[in-house]
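JOB MANIFEST
job_type = single_chain_structure
chain_count = 1
residues = 251
[input]
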Amino acid sequence: MDGFSFCISNSETKEPILFSKYNFSNSIKTPELLLEEIIKIFNSDKDLQQDFSSVFAIHQNNLATLVPNQLFDRNNLAPYLNYTVKTLKTDFITYDVLDTTSASNVYIPYVNINNYLFQNFGEFEYKHHSTVLIDKLLSYSKENSEQQFFVYVSQNELDIVICKEGKLIFYNSFSYSTKEDFIYYILFTAEQLEMDPDSFQLTFIGDIEKESDLYLITYAYVRNIHFMNTINNFFADSEDFTNHANFILIS
């Protein structure tokens, strides 16, 4: 609800060709207003007015929950969200099957955005952002024997993923409005998992830089912090974007 970004890649080599990002000055309040902003972007951005061999959309919101596959029933999705998400009878609920762990991700996508993309491009794939994030991080960490603490930062949300040797130990998404909220969720999660802030390594991904208040307050409590080192160096010479900030789309 706070922005829109896209990447155009070579369909054969999968190498990124172009990346663009639109940040909204205020978080959009409803999916209807979000669609209005998306339509404006599509109407004005020539790069989006091309023919593409395939389209993959990622919905980023906190309207999701992970369900172990042994407890999962694809014909009865609504109950999985009832304890964590305020749902309406008219909501369309779907799921992703994670590639790297025995779980499914139940979530509510922005159906009106999907309908608009279908009108523009025809058939396309879509997933929830946490599905892509978890799958990428589990693949990234499978050779590491240490427990890894990842924090993916968005404008008003943070996702925490903890894994070891490619196995998911913890995932959750939290809303924050202050830097104190932000560090609280990190320290609370560490405490619940008995991880010592003086010894574990925290890896930042997403919309955070070393000069930010979020980084500085985290460094006051957590000793070992670094930013994700991505394999892809598409943004190596960019003054506007960094590789760790756009890990979900380009890594």
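[summary]
The mean pLDDT is 91.
Residues 7 and 19 are 4 Å apart (CA to CA).
exit_status = 0
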